[in-house]
Fold these 3 entries.
Entry 1:
Amino acid sequence: MYYLLLEIGSYRQLTRLEPELVSDLVSRIADQAYRHGAVASSEEGGLFLFRFPALEDDRHGPVLDAAFDTRGILADRAEELAGYSVVIDLADGERDTEVAERLREFVLSTPMDEVIWLSTGAAGALNAFVDTSQEGGFTRVVERRDSDREPLGTAAEFVRMPEAVEEMRERMSPWINGEQEPGILLVYGDELRGIRENVHAAVEPLQNRATGALWPVIVGLENDTDPYRALIRAAPVEDLDRAVDYLTAGERVLYEDKLSLLRILKQRPFDGSYHRLSTAAVQSAYTLYLTACLRRLVSEPAVPGMIIEAAHHIRREAITILTGALNVLEPTLRPIVVLTSNRDLLPVQLLGREVSRYEFPRLTAEEFTDRASGYLSEPARRRLRLAAGMARTEGKALAVYHHFSNLQEERDFESAARPRPGADAYADGYEALGRLPRDEAELLFLAGETEGLLDRRGLFRVLGDLGAERVRLSEINEDLLRRGFLRDERTCLPSSPAFVSEAASVLGERAVDLRGELADWVWRSLGTKAVVPDRVLAGILERAGRRFEAVEAMRMTLGRELDAGNVDRAAELERDEILESSTGEHVQHRRIIDVYRFVATLRRFLLQEDLDEAERMVSRPPDTGGSPQLTGEVALQEGRLMLMRGRLAEALRLVKRAVMAFQEAGQGDLWARAQLEFGLVLLGREHLSEARDYFLLVQGDSTVGDHTLSRAELLVTICLFLEGKYTRVLEAVQHHREMMAPPGFNRWLLYAGLLEARALFELGRYADAASAFQTGMAVARVLGEPRAFRVLHLWAARCEVYLGSTGHARAIFDSYEPDAEVLFFRAEASYRDELMQQALSTLEEALEYESHATPNGGEAFNWSGGFAAVDDLAIGREGGETVLRNLIRAFRAYVMAHTGRLEAAMAEAHNLTRRQQISPIDPYRSTYFYFYSVILSGSGPDRLDDPLTVLGKSVKHLRERTGRIDQYGQKTDFLYRNYWNRRLMDAAKGQNLL
């Protein structure tokens, strides 16, 4: 075993006189020794002994590295020290204490200071690798012989094969020259690192590196859990910003609106805004980004093209987005696509395009020999065995590179190669990895542990938190890249997963410690919300043996995905092995896992509005073991189900149970979520002010999560709308757009847009409302929300009715399947066209549809209609009629009077306004009474009520609602631009009621 002894003269005196100097020196020496794989053995009176337990006798490199590096540290402080010495020893069978005592006697006998000495044992092993001189019977190291240690150059340069590069260029030549429409060059094989370097070499002359006009690169990684990150992993932030220079004015507006989405992709997992993304939104943003990149290439000039690396690892969602982008780009920019894979298969979405397939070759025996001549030193070439080398490496270029590295280091493979089960072509890589400095092996190991979640910047950030120096990290990264252990400079991912396992083997117990330190960082970061919960982070905790914390991280991850509305991703995570309980686990842990899965699955069904499946689940609830938190989580989801079913009494009971359980467990985000559901139950019972108080209670609590706070804010806005406080609604929606960024709020912001548009409609600003509905339609299309698009489209058409453009509106109404709301809008159009009989028959058809409020509540949106989405949250859920039903009946009576059926019209309006209990929060009470007053005014002496009295009631209700609007201009709009309010006001003035 190798030992390294350091002697610092007058150490005790220096400790008293220069304690900071000594402390710094000792720390630097220890760090340098540890970096080369040494372990501290003993320290006494200025003598420091380190041993190299992982090194075999012929693995001299790390020992010499440590000796020369340590001497450099001591030499830097030579003027402040009273001499120093470095001794290398090789011993077998001695205890560390015996070695320390023997080397103490040795160094005290040496004839000079400030040099490196070799003990007798070490001199015999190392004489071939260092120049020495004899000084009084002792062997002094003069310098190191580097002839056999000449570096091979970078792995990237080594693995490039000129013939392969030429072949790829030849295949692309017809596309480059315009002889054929560009297609896809599929380069496949089992050595992706070699494929990558050769592909990049092949396209190098097609780019314009001088101006930075490079082909976009999409990179797939094994076990990539993020569906979008592959799209932008290799896109520099500056390229994202520069893209606007190559877009048209209209495209620029769209891109700048979406740029934040692409920036979020770059920040994962440190940016909590990630959840605002949707496939449709990323599709739009990334298509514009690729458009800009390809236009830039054309303008430089360069050949437009892109690279898709490791396509077999890219998730289906990302391939779908890429395909959509190519469908847009191909007709005009016609990019060449180079795709790499480990097999001769295209992703199914890319089928149908012209494909040129090229299987990436391995090195032949002749090429192997040629490279040996070009890269190896003469002594290394003498040690080369061609047949054995080809067999060991299978001709894989990266494996050959590591084989040559080992030869350059004088490895005797027949005697010294460590036996390993299942050794493969990268066995030489394992041997080369074993010679890495300790901190390089650590970075490689940690890079593998994070499974591609972190790029170079993110990994450095984590390692910095763990105490690493940024400067040294850059050096380590560059060296690992040069040696071929890292895949590329951006992803900071090992070029082979096997290297990570080998790094763990080399590090031994240190790998266990590192895994624990990384797990500590993950758990600490999740607790402070510094990172977004992710399956990769949960896996880090699991591998570190932190089973319960891993389950908690999965709960957070599932909750985050469900907050975002990512139900498909949540369904994947529910089946994850971390959430599989085993019989050997503690019963409470099994119970927690079962409840977490139950809650996540039930919540997913509710978000999908699959209420039948949800009810089947609640019929078999899990055992909570009396845990307040678990009991509360189950009760909260069951309460949401009852709320969506319209069974408000049961919902109230369950939500109360959840609130009480969370209070017992400690108030927090779950308690706040339960308070919101309690408020929704009160809203469904038309207790508007009480419901708003609960929402405000949560909104004022800064300790709860962003999702819950933002949801509370929007629920308050719903209350404001139902109260008729339209000024505050418009202000609140603008605030939501500026501030909301928590999970799932792309859908909530779409809903907020509906509230804004409907408020504008109620104010009679029909053109502004139409514009707002159309904006919502565009958002709904981007988010992939067809039901929301339908509602917004129909309401935009309703605006056209009130703007006088009934023909176009009718065409839109006729394009959808009829329901009560569509038929009501059709009747309004017929009335405006003075087709009274047609309007009446349409209204009678509308009354045939169900009259009860559509189930609504919880977290899902009811996009069955514009009234159902908002008004049905509160009105008509526990008796009485819905707002839409009342409007249809009142308007039907009004139209009926216009057809001469006054008696029937009067009876209908009287029944609605006098006998039926209209909800006090129904926003159209003034309209119902106005319609009745008009009918009464046209009837004879047998009228049921006095028309002036009824009109007075209408004016009273209108004034009450107008008084809730803050801005004077909006009050005026509500009274005189709203079609029916204006007619009411005119009638009131005619009767001197104003």
Entry 2:
Amino acid sequence: MFTLHNATNNKELVNNLITLIRTQPLKNIFAKEHFLVQNSGMERWLSQQLAQQFKVWAHYQFLLPPQFFKQCSQNQTGRDKTRLLWQIEQQLHDLNKAIYLPLRHYLQGNNQALKRYQLAKQIAQLFEDYYNFRPELLSAWRQGYSHTENNTESWQRELWLQVNQTTRNSVDNQVTAKFKPSRLFIFGISHLTPLQLDDLQALAQDCDIHLFLQNPFANRIGLQHAVSHPLMMSLGQQGLEFQQLLLDKITFKFENNSIKKTPANTNLQQLQADLSYPRLKTTSLKIDHSISVHACHSRAREVEILKDLLLHSLEIQPNLAWREIAIIAPDIQQYAPFIERIFDDIPHRIQGHNLITNNLLLETFIQFLKLIDSRFEWQAVLDLLSCPHIFPHFEISEADLSTIKHWLIETHVRWGKSANHKQQLGLPSLNENTWQASMNRLLMGYAFANDNTFVDEILPFHQLEGTSAQALGGLNDFIQLLFKASDELTTQKSFKAWGQLFYDYVKHLFIDNQDRQALNNLLIDFEEKINPINEQAIELCVITRWLEDSLTVQKTANGLLRGQLTFSSMDAIRGIPFKVIAILGINEGDFPSLEQTPSFNLLTSKPKRGDFSKRNDDRQQFLELLLAAEQQLIITYIGQSQHQNQIIPPSVVISELLEVMEQDYQLNNLLVNHPLQTFSPCYFNHSKPQLFSYSTENAAISQRLLQKKAPLQNWWQDSVTVADNKIIELEEVRKFYRHPQRYFIRRQLGVNFQNLAPLIEAREPFSIEGLEAYAINHEWINTLLQKNDFSLAKLQAQGRWLSGVLGEVEFNKQQPAIVDFVTKIQELGLGEPLENLAIDINVGETRLIGKLYNRYQKGSLFYRYAKLKGKDLMLALLHHCLINPHEAQLTYLITQDESLVLGAEHQSLEMLQTLLQFYFKGLEKPNTLFVDMALDYVKQSYKQEKSTRSLQPPLKLALDKLKLAIEAPYEMEIQRLYGNSENLTQVLSDDFIIFCEQFLKPIWKSYVLSQPMYYL
């Protein structure tokens, strides 16, 4: 017998269910009660409701539709979509028949294996839909004739017949039920296919079936009853068709209607009452908090606004509990990061994770499979190694990961296993910048800590220590495992072979714990399900995609209805009533879903009642949410642009709701447009009653913004109290004169912006530029000055230079300029280099200790293979003032554009004291001097004195250079210090001008134009 229980909401249906179980217990007390529900959320909610009523509730079984109808029908083979997928995939390997010509263009180009799998997946879904919605179509195919006039039917029929040669599927409506429960309760089901209804009708011949149908149409059921409310017609079309299908397919022996009309005290309740009962006339309502729609600028703003709305609901409803609130979204995972940050002070759980996102080990294993079928980019390999389930298995500590990253950066590994791997990809067989080259250097460097010569054609990496052995060994084991996996897993294999290999690599890749055992069980489960279906060899990319798809589809119910605030996907809690329901992300294009159906879908040519439409189902679900909210309904969407504040149209379901509420209920201000910022004054000044906030922090910011704005000031306004240190290390003074502002921020404030390392691209170098070019050039010059050959082979082995013939061409192109620069230095005749000179001198009350470098037999030498900068001159001056009291000599400064010599007259104790005075001032404030701008100032000032032309003032030139420095990405310290300055003339203070005019300019003026080099 098939009994229909009809009510406007699920709470009334639960009461009917409880009454039925109490008054009509099963004859056999040991028999199970069976329930057919649509989702795991309904299963948990219904279990909780029954447990609360019966106190002891046990010996029951909940079944979801796929599981139930698989047990209910003997025609299981036709309903196993996974089996069908792989049977179709196997058939698509052979499309030589002329009838399959339309399919061939889907499999052209690259990645044909993956395209074949994706096509098979689409066709399998279509055949599943044909089975459920067009059984007469499959019957026609089996009898040898076509059912439609669509020209794609011929190849679909042929393919379906081939697939079913080994598994004959009955597609007739005659169903022999083999699952015979004592009694079946169907609860919370919103849609069933015609074939499923046939199964239920057949099952009802042997057992009692009770269908508890949430019917918002009061005493009406089916399309034959007129529906007066416009929202019911626009949103409930699928529900109406399902009810009519029930009348067509099911013979109900008894209908039990529990329709109760409740008083409408709020706008939401009035809307719900009008949806369920015919309206005699329109109703004029006043705004309240029961229904509200909020247009936001981003997902983060949606969550921020929602929190304030919920706090307000708790404020006006003291008895409201967190468990009575549900926050849902079409895809809740898009909001997960914002929820964790914004609701961190409120107990909550996010439901709707699939198996991959819910289990780091599964996600890591998929990452491993994708990596071994890729180019082995260095960052991807390092990311995989850094997984907490992996690196301990290779005896690598968390601290070792930083060391390993340093090794990889310094050995310049970029991508590719080896030269052979690159050749397999159709690229030149070059070993540089590959993992094999990097590992060879690291291992050889551990054995020979000297990178001056090649050892067995390998250049050792010298930055290794004895304590690094364990980390290096673990890294090598990990890389070798990846290499082995790449060789073994990138060839086609059967499912059985894949299953065994996956099991082995899980064992060798991850530490042994419960998560690893769970992954092993999951892989064994997949192997047992699929192995009997398809013995054909499958590519790795296909098996990876299938595994990822399978794990993504399987949702977990963890965190659902646990007494905390519930965040969930829409499908997981469909049909469950809550006092407050908030719906996030009702954006056009996101909800209702945009249906993408293949052009060869035969269902779309002749639609029939009972056909499933995801878009219509979403509209029906929105209607059900309108009815499920008992006290308050909150809807948010992205309705304003973050960039230009332009209005973004909402989803069509919001537009329809707003239109009905405006035209039929005279509610014109349901839509609330929110500001971009959480601290906007309108949230706190009561100018708009619908805008409010419970954030004390944002309130304080808002009050501060309303205050009169002070003029912009430099980031650093104060001075640092410097301890009276009598002993100064010379290297500290050098660091200061290289970049005074950077020195102040790093030493005095302890801030190092250079820790923000730039992203290193996963590609080998195709040009040498920037700091890397500067370092190579100076290394090149230094090697030639020592009368040694500079090795191109060494540069390429280090991965720092262009590979192959291109590298040779570039090397030969740059070598003449380098040789000319070295020749210029050698013509000075400075003799052989001398050892560093240790100094320990007193300058006034300061003791200066350190070492002097750059000493030669006939003078000191500073050179820079670039244009002269202020820091070069300052370092040369400092050195010159320090060395001459020990040994009188000249100091040479050679650059690409200048050649300077400091003479005996440019050193004195007073000059050294001045240099130290500026150093001490630079410890107190960052704007004592700008050495590079100072040199530009001095040059311009001298030109202005000697020229009759009108030249740019030197201070203006220095200011222009300062502006360029503030905008330069590598001058982060200057940008931080002076980026907000409205008047940069205040930055270049009197100390800067005094330094330029009184100290640096006299030195610059002393050069002699008549000599080949400037003599100072």
Entry 3:
Amino acid sequence: MMDRCGKAGAPQRGAGRGSWRVLSAAFLLPACLWLTLAALRGWAPFGPHSVVLADMRNQYISFFAYLQGVLRGQNSLLYSLAKSPGGNMWDLAATYLFSPVNLLAGLFPAARLPEALLCVVTLKTGLCGLTCALFLCARAEDGPPFATPVTVALSTAYALSGYTTRYFSNVMWLDGVILLPLVALGLRRLFAGRSPWLYLFSLAGALITHYYIGYMLCLFSALAFALGCLAGAPRRHTLAWLGRRAGLFTLASLGAAGLAAFVLLPVFASLSSDSKASLGVLQSLAALRGTDGAPRLGILSGLLTVPLATEQDAFPAIPALFCGAGTTALTGLYFLNTQIRWREKLAAALLLFALITSFHDPGLNLIWHGFNSPMGFPYRNAFLFPFCAVALAGRCWARRGGTRRWHGLAIAVAFAGLALLIARREGFDAAALPWRALDVALVAGCCLLITCGKRRPACGDPAPRARAVAAWGLALILCAHLLLQGELTIRRIQAGTFQMNRAAIANRITQNTALAQAIRDRDGGLYRMELPLLNADDSLALGYPGLSNFSSVARQGPLALFGALGYSSNGISTILYSPHTGIAADSLLGLRYLALENTPPQTDWRPLFTQGKATVYENPYALPLVFAADAEVMRACLPTDTPFEAVNRLYSAILGEETTILRPLTGDVTPSNARPAPLGDGTVYHRQDKAAPAAITAAARDAAAGPVYVDIEVSGMGQPARVSAGGQDMGNFYSYHRHNLFALGETTDVTVRFESDYLRIARFQFAQQDTQALARAVEMIREGGAQMRLLSGSHLAGTVHVPPGKTALLCTFPYDEGWRARVDGKDVAPLLSLAASPMRAGGEPGAPLPSLMVIPITPGIHALDLRYTPPGLAAGAWVSLATAALIAGIAVWRKARRRPLAVAKPMAD
């Protein structure tokens, strides 16, 4: 503890008195400030809008709805056909759903998911403040910090840092932010020679709740351990000191990984079976040779208030380092504090430098992100910097007797110089200058509060009144600055991303739930359907097999197959179904029902019924999800540059004979107010008159009777546009997807209207559907269709009549090593089928990837049983159980060693 002059002394009695008040305030203050931000933004229940923004709308609302189904026993955590076109759910759950806080969603009905997500984010924000306060209050040698509001304010600065307010929509990342202070506290205890259990269990919790952020905490722990050895190693017996702590650190880290093995091993098996992981490693190794990251000065601008007027992007490409003016002032003063050892300062400086360097260097940045380039949300490890800054600020405040007035002046001047350099880099933007001036004023004011005040002559410590004024003033400035930055950040996100109000989300969920149930009431079989989309993962939200999907754990093989067949896919994470894609491909994948709110589909879909605003259509050519096929299907390799040829080749492979369902047509291209120029493998069209509309019209030649389709193939990254045919709007042009297929019906021309100054088009491809050939092919395939029923999310069973000459069962869901097949009670090894090539940068096809699953079979009537277990789950569960048993044994043994021996009492006379 510290004596009254700020020097180390004996621990004070009652040092923890009032700690529960501080910890309660550290939880409640950031939670209340977050709810204040929600009220200012009008989020439900405070207004008509919702917290469902960015990826929370695109993905997580559906994942939480799926979790609700799991809690009600309706969905499986092992496998689901609702994860288009069917896939491992364990890796998705490990990525998005394993936080225990997410269980709150089970208390809300599906239509109230926006409020459920707000409750989850609020609770996690409060927990961030709580764990940070535990870390700040644990330094007994710094004196009891419970009497000051600065501890609560610094904890709030961590909980409402720029990272959490910018990336709150990625709610699963916040668990790592919660657990980081506990990991750091566990490391501190390990260095002090105490038990490693806190470090072990908190790191294990991080790996279990979100292995991706947990991986970052592992890297940070290794870095912090190395620098902690530099700061804390004694001058004598150094090797023995280092050896004991290195051994404890290694064993505790392995123990954490062992406890989390039931998550890590299945996830590793899933990632290693996909080429995205190896591609990320190659990208990282290549990037290590270059340093084309953001300038270091630009990185440090993340410490400043970023107003709405100066940022066009909702998620600017600088790390979210903001943690308030008070934290910045205290962090700077830490390095001038005379009561802190130079070795500790050196280790802290190296840690901050290592983090800033990792933000700057592209290779190191990729390594921190698990060898995969972060898309849309850069610098996902940026939460480490605010924590380090808050930890150093808390240390400086505890030893504030070592600061002087000139220290505060030096930090204020240095920060003003930094703000001036950043303003110069921004071109002295008039909209940003007032905010830069505000930052400088706030930091200078905080430095003044920290270092000034009447001091005791004996030791230079401020008088109680001055200390109270400084503490409360610093806390109020810090909280006000956090609230201001949070409001500006969230306003920018709302302005830069599409959002739906709470009523629209609730209405869409209610409508689609009723539509899906109405379709199930009419048809209790196994098929796919597509409903009006809230997001690409609606099928997961409502538990029906669909085709659209968007997640970070999407497999490349199915994505390549969908892209080859003409569905909108970016080849990385997204499949978007469009009713214009083509009924021939829809039929192959078992899409039987389609609900639309506006115009009917252009092809042979049959209207069934209307419910609310939507009309449900039936596909008369829909095939079952499992059917007999020719052995040629195991050798088929689909082209990725011609969707019409891919469909023809797939039908031919299934039937074992050549068939043409989509006949290619030639076409003419006519630009209007657009000047073409060759670029790469395509053409770039520039708008000539900037004030006049620009468009490209393409028309098919030699068309006969039958529906016409057009594929608009993109060259590289294009720009948004609108597509119309025959005077009817066809919707958006997905310029970031290589293929954009549109059903034109009997119309033979299509018009693409510019929404920017240029478009990049590789080519227009036309084809005409031979409906008779399609009907004949479907009839032949249906002869070998399997009658399957879904017994659970990971268990299918049924019967199949395999026609003569057919020796394969094609399953229109992806192959995975976790599948186990039994035919007539005998085990059969499923095989890979239908290779397709993913698209590389520039549109070049890569190595073929297997996608769907095929089961060898003989002609005749057979009973079929399919079960799925995520690869690595059983082994991981055994490793986790063994590790838990070993840890329990060690704990019992350590407790037994410390128990004193009982002394026998002498017998009475």
